[in-house]
Amino acid sequence: MTDFLLYALLAGLGVAAVAGPLGCFVVWRRMAYFGDTLAHSALLGVALGVLLNTDLGIAVTAVCLLMALALVALEQRGILALDTLLGILSHSALAAGLLVISLLPNVRVDLMSLLFGDLLSVTPSDLWIIYSGAAVAIFLLALLWKPLISITVEPELAAVEGVNVARVRTALMLITALVIAIAMKIVGVLLITALLVIPAATARRISSTPESMAVSASLAAMLAVLMGLAVSWHMDTPVGPSVVVCATLLFCFSLGVTQKS
Amino acid sequence: MNKPLISLKSVSKSFAGQAVLQNISMSISRGDITTIIGPNGAGKSSLVRIILGLIEPDSGKLESSAELRIGYMPQKLHIDPTLPISTCRFLQLANTSHQACHRALDLVGIPKLKNSPFHKLSGGEMQRALLARAILREPNLLVLDEPVQGVDLNGQNQLYNLIGEISKSLNCAVIMVSHDLHLVMSATDHVICLNHHICCQGRPEQVTQDPAYLDIFGKTSIYNHRHDHQHSLQGEVLDAQGKHRHGEGCQHD
After folding, report:
1. How many beta-carbon contacts under 8 Å exist across A and B?
2. Band of pLDDT at residue B249, cut at 50, 70 and 90
3. Cβ of B90 and A260 within 8 Å?
4. Which of B229, B230, B234 is CA-nearest to residue B245?
5. Closest to A156 in 3D by CA, of A148, A165, A143
6. Which among A160, A208, A213 has CB closest to B72?
7. Range from A56-60, B26-30, B201-205 that averages highest in pLDDT
8. What is the Cα–Cα distance from B170 to B178, expressed in whole angstroms?
9. B113 touches A: beta carbon within 8 Å
10. Interchain contact, A153 vs B79, CB within 8 Å
């Protein structure tokens, strides 16, 4: 097997593994639009990274984390409904990103690869970033698992029982931002939410505890990455969309299974 | 007189310029059963959330004793059906062991539901499960916000009786919110009638005679339902013969 394919496979599996449990929270807490907003702001990160001549991965991660913190702060002030707020931030970040990129002289940024991912160009140093990011995210999710479930079920009850709801929620937002920053390479800005939501929805059909759903979602996402790479290799299709289509096929297949309650 | 578990001193709170609570002072000691009643929008839930420490008052003070342990039963709870969680697992979120959860479910009378998915529980079962989670923390103060919401009238009486028994056996104080006094009359020692400020308070039979209470609730609004028969789980009338009195114009057997 050629090296680039092996790197692609490892990168895809690493992101898929963490997309599973995180995607479950996105589904449980109805955060899909939040994921979209962070993904769109990743493009602004790329633009700023090029502008400031820094590592793009670091720039994207920094912008995503800042955007998550901004959202937390704005949400707490409660000026606007959350979806309005997300709509404003999401599309202004996307537009600002495109604007900055178009203004940069003599720089050609491959927009298609940003929007839809470019798994086959993963380098060993990308792999290193992806795996350390995924490891941090999984470690934090495991550490905060119980309070995260508790605030998802009922935040006020969790607060009375001694959970610091604001802190745990902020942590979840930051973990989401981190995962989106590293997943951008795999499926691109426009398809990240799909990689979070679709495997989790698939896993729900066959799970009866939060933990089994998280693990199944990881496995479903990893299977989708394997299938997507195979499809892409044999049919010469773009990898990101192939992965998402395979995840959707798995979901359709899961509809045939009687849902566990 | 023992030291109160919790006391509020001249607490006020407003949201967006609207005064929701004005100058509220009250205290709860061990074993007290206090009911807060008031019309919709009177600030009952805000008062409860201040007592729970979920929101800060704008002015005034909340003092709680060092040994205060609150068990909270929220009004109702909606769990997204995409989150698979069993009733037992839901209880364990209160930081307790398997055995403790089973005991609590026994105590509230739903031991068979421990493996049922939480989002499939009926209104009455859900309230019992919430009560179980509240008592799992071995509280000395139970805070119940409209504990019988979404429960039919017969079930409401049972639930109030259960709350009374449990608070007695755990020897804990109770703060209960209700918009319906007659149901809780027998189960409560002290009633606070709230409409942004404390209109009147005292023993239930005193409060129902108080002009401030009558102003808000009126004399006639107290519906004296006498449930003189019982229903099976399917809703059929059991043992109705001879005991069930028919109203005027009543056509059924």
Report:
1. 67
2. very low
3. no
4. B229
5. A165
6. A160
7. B26-30
8. 22
9. no
10. yes
**B77 part of contact set with chain A, CB < 8 Å:** yes
Compare all CA atoms of chain B with the CA of A260 and give the residue at the minimum distance.
Answer: B84
Give, for all 261 residues of chain A, the pLDDT tens digit: 578 889 999 999 999 999 999 999 999 998 888 888 988 888 888 888 888 888 888 888 899 999 999 888 888 887 788 888 888 888 898 899 889 888 887 767 777 777 888 888 888 888 998 999 999 999 999 999 999 999 999 999 999 999 999 999 999 999 999 999 888 877 888 888 999 999 999 999 999 999 999 999 999 999 999 999 999 999 999 888 999 999 999 999 999 888 777
Query: Measured between CA atoms, how close is B86 to chain A, in angstroms?
Result: 7
pLDDT of B220 reads 47
Interchain proximity B84–A153, CB inside 8 Å: no
Q: How many helices (H) and strands (E) does chain A have?
A: 12, 0
DSSP code of residue B82: T
**Cβ pair B82:A27 closer than 8 A:** yes
Q: Please tell me the distance from the alpha carbon of residue B153 to that of residue B138, in angstroms, as a whole number.
A: 29
Domain that holds residue A52: 3-190
Find all residues with CB under 8 Å of A138, minimum gap 6, and list them.
A17, A18, A21
B175 to chain A: which residues are within 8 Å by CB?
Answer: none
Please tell me which of the candidates B74, B82, B84 has its beta carbon nearest to residue A156.
B74
Task: Provide the total of helices (H) and of strands (E) in chain B, helices listed first.
Answer: 8, 11
Q: Total structural domains in chain A?
A: 1
User: At residue B71, does pLDDT exceed 90?
Assistant: yes
A198 in a structural domain: no
- Tell me which residue in A160, A201, A260 faces B84 most closely, judged by beta carbons: A260
Helix residue spans in chain B (DSSP H): 44-51, 87-92, 98-107, 123-136, 153-170, 181-184, 204-207, 211-217
Nearest beta carbon to residue A160 from set B70, B80, B83: B70
Among candidates A28, A160, A204 on the partner chain, residue whose Cβ is nearest the Cβ of B52: A160
CATH at A83: 1.10.3470.10
Closest to A182 (Cα-Cα) out of A80, A23, A28, A60: A60
Burial class (CB in 10 A: 0-12, 13-18, 19+), A146: middle
Whether A214 is in a domain gets the answer no
Closest chain B residue to A162, measured at CA: B94
Residue A205 lies in a domain: no
Cβ of residue B117 closer than 8 Å to a chain A Cβ: yes
* Contacts for A13 with CB less than 8 Å, ≥ 6 apart: A222, A225, A226
Residue A202 lies in a domain: no
According to the model, what pLDDT value does residue B229 have? 54
> In chain A, which residues touch B (CB < 8 A)?
27-28, 30, 146, 149-150, 152-154, 156-161, 200-201, 204, 207-210, 212-213, 260-261
